Amino acid sequence: MKVSVRSGIIVGVAAVVGIGVIGVGVNSSTPRSVTITSPQIQLAGLADNLFPGVGQAAGHAATEANETGDPRKAAANQLPTVIPGPLSIETVFLPVGPEAAVIGKALNVVLARLLRDTPDAPTDQDDDITPLEFAISANVVEQGLSLVGIDINDTTPNEVAAAQSVLDKVGVDFNVQTALDSLVAAEEILATRLDSPVYGLNGRVLDIVDNGTANGTRVQMWDHTGAENQQWTMNSGGNQIVNPHTQKCLDVVEAVNSSDLFPNGVPIQISDCGRQTSEQWRMADEVTDGNPVGGAIINLPSGKCLDVTDNVSANGTRLQLWDCTGGFNQQWNFPPYY
Fold this sequence. Notes:
By secondary structure, the chain is of the alpha+beta class. The chain has helices at about 45-50, 55-70, 70-75, 80, 90-95, 100-115, 130-145, 155-170, 175-195, 285-290; strands at about 15, 20-25, 205-210, 220, 235, 240-245, 250, 270, 280-285, 295-300, 305-310, 320. The longest helix is centred in the middle third of the chain and has 18 residues, at about 175-195.
């Protein structure tokens, strides 16, 4: 018998208080206030408050994912960095000193991310949970459940009851069914949304206008949603930025009736990959090495930078090519550090 995801899974499971999430039957610690910010990306977001260390782990995973093209494996490889000691019921389910148990902290991140997709989601929450933070947290929960014999793909009610009995006997305050339902829901999201957004000015991301697929569709800034028109990867040669959904490349609209093919202000678009040199880009090391300030994305044939028009970060602001100035509107993170 397969275990299905219950509707309204979050109702009664998690309550949001400020930026803290308290899971039923899960130990949680009081979140610290966040004051460290950069012009592009908030450094310590909701996930890192609920699960200290997952943000740094996501940074390492981002670097690996950018090198290998496999963000799921990169997230899974961070398991040893967020679980102290060998994988066991004691290290995963029991608190370490005054701190909450690692699986409880990870589950709180999963619950918070799931809550964002419900009508009860807070509207004033600026802190985002990145796909890699979400994936790492879900991986911790999955590994914890596997320790007590739970396979999220094929588990019976009797197996859930037996696992709960094991934890109850060792005094662990943890609800197996809640964790299982939450993890199944998380896996459905991660199967389609483990994207690699390119973060820029004020934390917004590169977004293909109206989810278009045609050559010539413009690129803009937009709030991160995890949608397929915000996913990007580098090709194997490392000089093309590709949207996996459309299989088209980030490109520059070449100017006509001009001696300069790439004057300041020419728009950014998507187009078929391999058609022209205007699709070739170089990312400064700071774009991908976890530096929260970010770095420039440079168009190779022109030597100019990917630029947010008029230094305005509002949703819908179009991207353009401009002389490199080092301004905040030319600083990018791919994948994001937080």
